[in-house]
C-alpha cells in the first residue's frame, strides 16, 4: 500500500489516527477512511473539500461532512460525551472555519463544545457578556487572526488552560498569520499555549487530551477509594 | 562644524529641532544643546545617559535631566500648556522608560500629560478603572511590550486617535520588539497608528502635532468669526 | 446570526462600525450592509469587488460603489463636512487604490479631502509645486510603495501629523510591502506614524479621528467661553 | 507606587500573581515579593539572579532561592500536592535551567513533578527506558533546544497533553531558539502545544492549570454524586 | 544556441550533466535531452510535467517518464549498479514526490535504492521495524516535511552519512519548508548534512557521489595490492 | 604563512589588494601591511582600531591613521588624482564613520573627493543648497541610515551613477541596517545601486572603479585619434 | 490626467522617463507611450506583455517589442552608440529575461552591449573562455539566480565596476531571490554593487549612467585642451 | 549525575560520543572527559576555551588542546588513519577556526586531512593551483563566510561529495552567517550538502562517516571475494 496507516495509535495514545486530507487524492482518501472506519471507534478526516468528500459519502453513507470545518467524520450513533465541556471562543466571522475545525475535532474525540463566536476585543462588551460560560469550561480554545489580543484578554480572566490558535486572517504585515502567532506566544497572561497557524485540528485534539486525562483522573481517584 | 543643525525647522514645521543623544560624544551634545538653547523656545535631547547629561547641566544649570526618560531639556519658566491633555497609557512597569520619554517629549512640546501606568490586559479591571481619564484625552499614547494587546483594547474603547508604541520588553519570540510592532500594526481596532519600537520620542512628538493642530484649528475658527 | 454586529460602537467610539468585505459572501455583505444602513448615520464597506457590490446596490439603490477604492457606502444626502480638510498625498499611479480607500473612508466619516497624487520623490519638483495645499491641511496621509521616501520628505516639510501608508507596490526585495513599512517606521522626520501595508481604510479612519477631536476641541473651547 | 500589583488575580484566575524579575531593581523586587508574601498563599519570582535574591532572603528568611531555575519563592510549610504528577522531560544538560524553571513553577503552584532529564533523540534508548514514568503523568512538559525533535517523539508515545518549551540552546541557524520554536509548532504528532522560547515559567503554569482543572473536575464529579 | 550544454562535465566531475526542466519550453527540453542522449552514458531531466515529457518520449521512445518523481530519463539497457545500496527513508505519503526524485536520480547515476516510506516519528514503531535495512545502507537519505524530526532520529541510529531533505509539506509556521530546513540544520545528531527544500535531485546526486567514491576507493585499494 | 596575500590582484583588476582589519591580530596586520607596502603602489587597511594601528605606525612611520574612518594607509608623496571628483553625501552626523571610510578609500585609490555631510531629507533645504557640487561629480556615493530616503532623492536629481550605502544607524525596526538596505534596493529613482550595510570601503572602491574606467576611456579615445 | 509624467526628467538627469508597464492598463500604456514618443529622444516601457504591446504597436508602428525582455521601445533610426560597450554576463538560460531587460535598456539608452550568456560557475571553463570580451567592457552586468556566485568570480577577474542583478530563479531556501541578493551584497570581491531582484532595467540604466559619464568625461577633457 | 552520557553510541553508530563544551562548567567538562577517556577509543570535546582546557589537561596530561580549533582531545599513540584523505578547503584567514574544528574532528575520528587554506574566489588562481590535491580527496569540506561562492566553484570541479560549512565571518546583510548558509543551500553545482553555520565539528564528523563507510565497503568487498 502507499501508506502505513498507524492503527497501533489508539492503543498507544488513547486517540484514533486521523487523516490529513490536504494533497491526498479522492481515491486515497476513500481507501484510508474506510480502513479507519473498520478498525477504530471513530473515523475523522480534516482539510477535505466537498468535492472529495462526496466520493467517500457515497461509499460510507453513515459518515457526515461538515462544510465550514472542512471535516469528514463517522461517529457511531450511541457515543456520548465526557462530563464538562470545552469552550471555543473566536474573534471574528472570518475565523469561523478554524474555530469549527477545532470544535468538530474535539466533539469527534468525545468532548462537548460550547461555541462563543465573534467576540473580538475591539468590542469588549461582547466578550464580557459571555464570560460565565467561558469560565466554567474544562479548557478554553481561543481562535483569532489580526493581532490575536483575544487570547491574552481571555487568559487573564479564567483559571483553566487556554489554547490559542492564530489564524491567517489579515493582510500586509500580518505575514500569513505569523504576526498573530508571535503575538500569542508573547502573551502577557500566563496559562496560554499555542498551536500552529490555522491548526484548529491541533487545538481540538490537544483540548480533548486535557479533557480526557481530567476525566480519567476522576475515574482513577474514584477507583482508588 | 560637524553638523548642520536644522535651525530652520521651527519655522518650517512649527516644532523645534531635537537632539538624538545616542552615539554623540559629551562634547558634541553640549555644543548642540547650547546652540538650541540660544536659538529656540525650548531645547530637548533624548537618549542621554546621566553621565553625558552632567557636563551639559554644569554649562547650562537651568536645564533639567529626567532619569527614567533619559531626557535632557530646558524650558523657560513661564511657558504654559495648550488646553486639554494627552493620555500616556502603559502596560507594565518595564515599559516605563519609553512611556516617560513619550510623556516628557509631549510636555516639552507644550502638551499636558496624564499618566496611566501598569494597566496591561492580563488584569483588565485595572484598565477599566481608568477609562474616564483616558476617554477625555485629546489623543492617547499606548506603550506596551509582550503581545501589545493593550493598543487594540484601548483603540476599541475611545474615539480619539491612538498612537501605539511597541517596546522591546520581552524575550525569545519577542524578537526585540518586532513581535509587538507587528501585533500593533494588525490591530483589529480602527484608529490605531504605530511608531518604531521604543520610540517614545516619536509618539510624544506625533501626539503634540495632533494637539497643536487641534489648538490652531480652534484659534483659526475663532478668528474666522 | 453568524455575526455580532457591533452596533454599540458609534456610542462608544463616536465612529460607525465598518464592514470588512474580504472573505464575506455576497449574501453576508448584503445582510450586514442593510443592518448598518438602518441603525447608523452612514454605512461603509471596504474591500468590496464590483461583483459583490451589485447585489447590495440592487437592494439599496441609494448606496454608491467606488471602483478604484473598492468601497461601497451610503451617506444621507444632507450630511456636511467639518471645517478644514485632510490631504491625501500619493507617490505613483499604482498606489491609487490605497489612496482612494483612504480618501473615501475619511470623506464618509465627515472630513473633506484634497488629493495630491503621483508626486513621488524621484521627481521632487512635482511635490514642491503642491506644498501649499499640503501645508494647510489639518492632517496629511502619505501613500507610497517602493522605498516610501515620500513620507519622510513630507514629514520634514509640514507641522501637522503625517500618517504613512506603505503599499504593496514593488517587487523582489520589496517583500510585499514590508520593505516600505520598515522604511516608514524608521523615518528620520519626526511626526510620522504608520498603519499596516495597503491599509488605506485605517489611515482614513485615523485621520478622521484627529480631525473630529480637533473639531470637538474647537466646540468645547467655544462652549467654555 | 510604581506598580499596580494584580492582587485581584488569585480570585479571578485561581492562581497567584507572579513577579517577573528581569529588569526589576533589587529594591522593587523586595517590595513586590513582601507584598505577595502577605496577601497570597504562595509567593513566586522568576528570572532572579542570586545577587538580587540575597536582599529578599535577608528580609524574608523563610523564602528559598533555586539557583539553576533562577527562582525565588516562599511556600508555607504545610502545603501539599494534588494527586498525580507532571513529567518534565528535557533533551540535554544545557536545557536544565529552563526545565527547572518549569518544574519549580509547577511545584510552587501545587503539582508534584517527576524529572526525566538528558534524554534527547540522538540516543533514543535513553528516552525509551523512561517511557513508563512519562506515560503515567497527568501532563508532560518537553524542554529541548537544537531541532526540538523530542517533542514530536514524546507526543507520539503518550495520550496526555504535551507542552513543548523550545530553548535558546544552539547556534548559527538556530536563530536564538526560533528554529526550535518553529519545529515544535509543526510537530507531526497531534497533542503538542507550544510556549515561548525559554519560557519554563509559562509551561509550568500551563501544566498546573491543566492539573488543577483535572483535580477540580474530580472534586465536582464527586460532589455531584 | 540558447544554452551552453556542459558536455565537459562528465569528464570533470565523473557525473553527467542533468537538465532542470522547470521553466524550459517543450522544445528546449527536447533539444537538450536529445543532445545529452547522444553524448552521455545516461540522460536525465528533473521537474518535468507529463505534458512536456510526451514530446520527448515521441522523439526518443527508449526514454521513460516517472510520474511521481517528475523525472524523464534514458538509461541504456545493460547498465548495472555498484555494489551496496542507498536507503531512501521518508516520513509521510505527501513527501513521496521528493523521495522518488531522490531515488530515481540515484538509480540513474548508478546506485541501487531501498525505499522505506511513511515511517514518520509520530509512530516510532514503524521506523524501528525497518532499522535493519536502513543500517546496512552505504548512505541514507531522509525526506521529511513538518518538523523534520525523522532526520535526527535516524542520524542517532546509524553510522553511515545521513542526507536530510526538507520538504515543503506543511502549512502556517512551516513557511514553505523553511521551518523543516532550519530544524534539520540544527540536528542534535552528528552525521547529518542538508540540501535545499524539496531538492530530491540534489540528495540523490550527493548520495551517488558518496557511493561512487566508496566504490572507486575499493577499486583503488584493490589495484594497489 | 597564515595567508595567501593576493599580490597578483593589481595586475588582474588594476586595483591593489586591501587588508580587512577586523579579526586580525596586531601582528598579522603589521606583517600584511608591510608586505603590501613593499609590493604595491599604495597600502590600505580598513576596520583598524587606533590600538592596532599604533604598532604598524611605529614600524612604518610614513603610514597615516584616519581615526573616524578606521583606516590605516600609506600613499607615496607624489601620487596625484585623476581629473574630476567623487561626491560623498551623508544624511546625519552618526553616518560619518561610514562616509569617511568611503571617502578615504576612494582617495587612496586615486580619486579626489568632495564631502557633503549632514544633509538628510528631514531638512531638504540643506541638500538643495549643495546640489551644484553634487551634480558635477563623476559619481555620487550616498551614505544614510534610518529610512535611507536620501538615496532616492539624490538619484532623482543627478545624471551620474549613485552608489547607496545603508548604515546601521537606527534602532528597533531598523534591524541593524536591514531596513535601510531594503529601502535603498527599492529606490523609485533609477540609477541607484547598493552595497552592504556600513560598507564604506565597498562604495569607495566601486566609485574608484567607475572613475578609473572613465579616465581610461578618455585616454583610449585620445590615443585612438 | 491620471499621472504626472516627469517630462522634466531628461533635462534634470540626462536620461528619458521610462514607463513601468506592470499594473498599467493597455489604455494607460498607450497614452503614456505616445506622450513620451513625442517629447523625448527615445521611448521605453518595461514589464510589458505581448498582449498589451500589440495595442501600442498598432498606434505607433515604428516602435518594436522585445519578447524575452518584455520591453517595448522606440528609437529613431539614426541614433548611434557611445564608444566602448557594456558586457552583460548571465549564469543560466532561466536568467535570460532579466539579462535581456538589462541589455535592451542599456542599448536604448545609448550603449552597445556584448552578451555572454549561460556561463555559470558550475562549469567554470565556459566563463574563462569569455574573459577577454568581459575584461574590455566599460562596465559589466552580472545576472544570476541560485547562489549568485558568478558576481564574485567576475568581480575578482576584472577592473571595471560590476553591477550584480540577483534573479528569482531558484526554489525553496532561495526565497524568491532574497538568497541570491544577500549573497551578492556579501561578495568577497570588491567592486561589486547590487540592484533589486530581477531588476534588469535598473542595472541597464545604472550601467548606461556609468558609460555616459565616462563618455562625457572624455568630451570634457578634450574640450579642456 | 547531571548527564546521561551516551556510552552506548559507539556501538550504535560506530562513532564515539563527543562533548559539546559550550555552556558546560570546567568541572562538568572534566568529569565527562575523563568518563569518555575511560570507556572509548578516543575522547573529543569541542568549543573549549583554553581556560577550561587547562583543568582537564592537568587531570589528563596525555590529552592535547588545539588552540585555533578550540578542541580538546585524547588519542592513543598507536592509532593510524584509514587509506585516502579528506580535503579541508577554506576561503579566508578568518574562517580558520571553523576549518580547524572540521579538520581536527575528522583526524580524531580516523581520517587523514589535507588543508588548502585562504583560496577564496576573489583570487581564483589560488584555488586553481591547488585543484590536484583537492580532486584526489575521498571527500571535500569547503569552509567559507561572506557569499560562500567557493562551495559552488569547488562543487563544479570535483566528483567527490562536497560538504559546505558556512561561517559567521561577515557583517551587515551577512546576518550572522545566514546569508552564506542560504547561498550554499542554493548552490548551482550538484553534489553539495550543507551543515549549520560555524559547524566545523558536524562537517568533520560527516566527512569521517563517508570516509569510514568507503573504507568498510572496501573491506566488505574484499571479504566477499
Ligand atoms: N529618541 C529618538 N528617536 C528617534 N528620533 C529621534 C529621537 N530623538 C531625536 N530624534 C530625531 O533626530 C533628529 C536629530 O538627529 P541628529 O541630527 O542625528 O541629532 C531630530 O530632528 C529628531 O527628529
Ligand atoms: N519567566 C517569565 N516569563 C514570562 N512571563 C512571566 C515570567 N515570570 C512571571 N511572568 C508573568 O509576568 C507577570 C508579572 O509581570 P510584572 O508585573 O512586570 O512583574 C506575572 O503575572 C506573570 O504572568
Ligand atoms: N571594510 C571592508 N568591507 C568589506 N570588504 C573589505 C573591507 N576591507 C577590505 N575588504 C576586502 O577584503 C579583502 C581582504 O580580506 P582578507 O584577506 O581577509 O584580509 C580585500 O581584498 C578586500 O576586497
Ligand atoms: N561543535 C559542535 N556543534 C554541534 N554539535 C556538537 C558539537 N560538539 C559536539 N556536538 C554534539 O553534541 C553532543 C553532546 O552534547 P552534550 O550532551 O550537550 O555534551 C554530541 O553527541 C555531538 O553530537
Ligand atoms: Mg465583527
Ligand atoms: Mg505587573
Ligand atoms: Mg510616475
Ligand atoms: Mg548529552
Ligand atoms: Mg501517515
Ligand atoms: Mg541632524
Ligand atoms: Mg546550463
Ligand atoms: Mg585574503
Topology:
The structure is a homooctamer of 225-residue chains.
Chain A: H1 9-13, E1 19-20, H2 26-39, E2 43-46, H3 50-59, E3 64-66, E4 71-74, E5 85-90, H4 96-108, E6 112-116, H5 124-128, H6 131-135, E7 139-144, H7 149-155, E8 162-166, H8 178-185, E9 192-194, H9 200-224
Parallel strand pairs in A: 1-2, 5-6, 5-7, 7-8, 8-9
Antiparallel strand pairs in A: 2-4, 3-4
The structure holds adenosine monophosphate (AMP) (4 copies) and magnesium ion (MG) (8 copies).
Question: In brief, what are we looking at here?
Answer:
The structure is a homooctamer of 225-residue chains. Chain A is an alpha/beta fold and 225 residues long. Helix content of chain A is 41%, strand content 17%.
Folded structure, characterized:
8 copies of one chain form a homooctamer. Chain A is of the alpha/beta class and 225 residues long. Helices cover 41% and strands 17% of the residues of chain A. Chain A contains 9 helices and 9 strands. In chain A, the strands form 2 sheets. A 5-stranded parallel sheet of chain A has the order 6-5-7-8-9, sandwiched between helices. In chain A, strands 1-2-4-3 form a 4-stranded mixed sheet, with helices on both faces. In chain A, α2 packs across α3 and α4 (96-108) runs parallel beside α9. The first copy, chain A, is globular. The mean pLDDT of chain A is 91. The A-D interface holds A 12-15, 18, 83-84, 138-139, 156-161, 163, 181, 185-186, 190-196, 201-203, 205-206, 209-210, 212-215, 217-218, 221-222 and D 12-15, 18, 83-84, 138-139, 156-161, 163, 181, 185-186, 190-196, 201-203, 205-206, 209-210, 212-215, 217-218, 221-222. The structure holds adenosine monophosphate (4 copies) and magnesium ion (8 copies). The site of one magnesium ion has 3 residues of chain G, from loops. One adenosine monophosphate sits between chains D (17-20, 46-47, 199, 201-202) and B (92-94).
